[in-house]
Amino acid sequence: MSVLFFTVYPEEFLPTYHSIREGAKVDKAQQAEFNGKPDSLFFNDGVRRIDFILVYEDEDKKDFEKRHTFARRLRRREYFEASLMKMGVELEATPSVVDDKLTFLKIHMPWDVLCTYAEVLHIKLPIQVNDLSSRPSPWRYLSWIAKPFYPSEDLIRKETEFFTAPFEKDRLEYFYVKDRDIFFTPSMRSRMAYYILSRAPYEIRGSIKKFGMNKLLDGGVYKAAYPLHDCRFNVRSSEEGCPNERYLLYEEWAHPKSFYKMQPLDLIRKYYGEKIGIYFAWLGFYTIMLTLAAAVGLGCFIYGYTTKDTSTWSNEVCDPNIGGKLVMCPQCDSCNYWPLISTCDTSKVSYAFFLILVFSCFCSFPPVTLFLEFWKRYQAELEYEWDTVEFLEQEEPPRPEYEAKCVYERKNPVTGVKEKVPYTAWGRCVRVSIGMGTVLFWIMLILASIVAITVYRLAVFITFSTKLRNTDLKDLEPLKEYVTPQMATSVTASIISFVVIMILNVLYERVAIWITDFELPRTKTDYENSLTLKMFLFQFVNYYSSCFYIAFAKGKAVGYPGKPVYLLGEYRNEECDPGGCLIELTTQLAIIMGGKAIWNNIQEVLLPWVKNLIFRHCNSAASEKVIPRWEQDYQLQPSSKLGLFYEYLEMVIQFGFVTLFVASFPLAPVLALINNLAEIRIDAWKITTQFRRIVPEKAQDIGAWQPILQGIAILAVATNAMIIAFTSDMIPRLVYYWSFSVYPYGDHPDNTMEGYINSSLSVFNISDFHSSSSLVTNTSIPSNFSNGFVFFLDFRFPPGHPRQYEHNVYYWHVNAAKMAFIIVVEHIVYFTKFILSYMIPDVPYAVKEQIKREKYLTQIILHETNLKLVTRRLKNGDDEILSNEEAKVTKEEMELDF
């Protein structure tokens, strides 16, 4: 059966062109009227189950201008349906109840066809009840406390656990077939039906065979293709044999009243497939791990906010006798001098983040590692329970788009057999190079937009500084008290940055899909991994570049008042607030995270709901009619071709915000937790009530997102250490508190932070301004300023010193402490991550035992079957008769081989 890995479908199902054309005229799909049962999942005979639905429009009932196009569609549809019947699939066409132009084609797969394709797709099915006794949980005595937080056992009952093996048609008697009608679950049947639909030919021209359901959908031959929901989501079906799984999922999972309950993952997997199940399992696990980080972050923030008035540093800034008498140098060439006391509010707020050192080490380092390691263990348990342990890449069938373009031959390095491929080695290199070049171009475009926003910040800061400070309007006096030029510039730039991010996302999404289609990956997993890498690289630069600029670039190369640094020779580089750029980075993160969450909810929830509402309103005349199940589902929204790609991308980007910049925004885990609690139920409500049933797919893990998460976790160590060292003023404070006893402006009292303000500022004489500087002529001097000296944020020698305005020893001490902090923290954290990764096994011991037991049973069954086949063949042979003694020896030899 290994040959089937590389074939489209069994050769006996391959019809010729002429037989199809002749058969299409005779073997029409059975025409049937609706039987009046709205929740029926069967053909009109009530016996054959509907495995898939195709919808097409009867083109004879419309006046077409281009009859040639629609004649080709009709020809392709007839050929395609005849191909399906030649492959053993049974069809039944039913006209629409609501729209007489539509026809619904019901597809049923008989038992023999199901067995054939279950073997082709290596579907694992039960062979024996799991006889391994589960070990009692140490928390079983407290189960009554957690019981209300789990789905109702009366509605969703726990299913019997089985050992499973890949299905083989010739060994059917060894599988646990209690009832043929339910042996293959509806999700399995839909998956096999979709496999056939994706590979049935619809046209042959010479030696070129065209096939693929997606091509027919894109060409308008069919309007929709989907499996059926089993019932209405809010009403239990009364049809005999209906499992009502959709209703149960809505009641115990998607309904808002169940927001506090754990997810019924086994039922989700059974109804939607392993790919959907593993996503919700990961999202739920991630949300639970956020709870502890959110609690610690919220506690740190509350403590810092309630004790902000006790901070010696902020009290000195707000003291009229200290901060009120310190006149600061203008931050732009046309700005005014300003008193340090004007930053009183921001200095108090920045103290609320004083515990960022402890919190970032707690949240970004060991817990992230524990989250990833424990997720691997949990994922291993799901892999075993959901029969995806041996879901290997070579078992995954090629994509129809890949198979359709296979025109070259090459020798398979594994099997040694010649196989068809769509490109040569040189062609593949060209395709990948073009794709990489396009991705780099778009990344450079993002960086160009960041430069443009930076220029905007520099230009607008001057405008806000001059207009906001010089305005005489009395109505703006309260605004002027709370809105500083830095804050106004930061908020407007963040909003513009978010808008640019959203626009570039829409454009690049289409480019990334085009590039991936052009590269022509072999399997769907390869396709999704390639697209995932491209989209994440783009999103990483798009979402995080502005945050990296504020955290690590802004205010780092500004020079000093007498010799400022200019960008593009015109715009003076912007400076940070005396408390650092931490507040501005927090503002940027809050706007992007909040705006992204709101936009995603509008796009994912509100739009589908409004579309369905409009559709129902437009068809209100048909509301009195009895609408069948397949037509009810047709009125729902189609699922995305990329499936869960955007859901994963949204959560991984959020994971980056929570880990990469948590040192600047301790409330990020809190916001992420609130968002995720709503996201789980919103996604569940969306796919259960607003969308057609998704085609079930097999998946072993979360795919390419796993190494991406690990990469983010590693990078988070460096970014948070650098934020603490370079963006906040944590290290200068600690250096002042622990290391120095004498400063240029007085003695350092032991164990206090008094005098830190003077130590963090440098003095400048305004007479050292160049005569051409606008600061000499265009800037008003404060009334309390008479000695000709102002202050600026830096560590430099004062005027009159032999090395005036050069960096002093304190500057080098502080920078040395910053570098030492980064090196020490990174090494400690990376070592801790390595130890934790080594100590925590990826697969639990109990799961390993069950996997070994299952493999043993499978081999025993297959061995006995092979032995019987050999014995039967030898006994029935004409040239060789096997005696009892010889049979015994043969059996012993085979057991030794086993």
Automatic annotation (TrEMBL):
Q: Does the keyword Translocase apply?
A: no
> Domain Anoctamin dimerisation: where?
42-265
- Localization: Cell membrane; Membrane
Ranges for domain Anoctamin transmembrane: 268-854
Q: Keywords for this entry?
A: Cell membrane, Glycoprotein, Membrane, Transmembrane, Transmembrane helix
Q: One GO term of the cellular component aspect?
A: plasma membrane
**How does the entry describe its membrane topology?**
Multi-pass membrane protein
| Listed GO MF terms | chloride channel activity; protein dimerization activity
Identify the PANTHER family for this entry. Answer: ANOCTAMIN, ANOCTAMIN-6
Task: Identify its protein family.
Answer: Belongs to the anoctamin family.
The name on file for this protein is Anoctamin
* Organism from which the protein derives: Amphiprion ocellaris (Clown anemonefish)
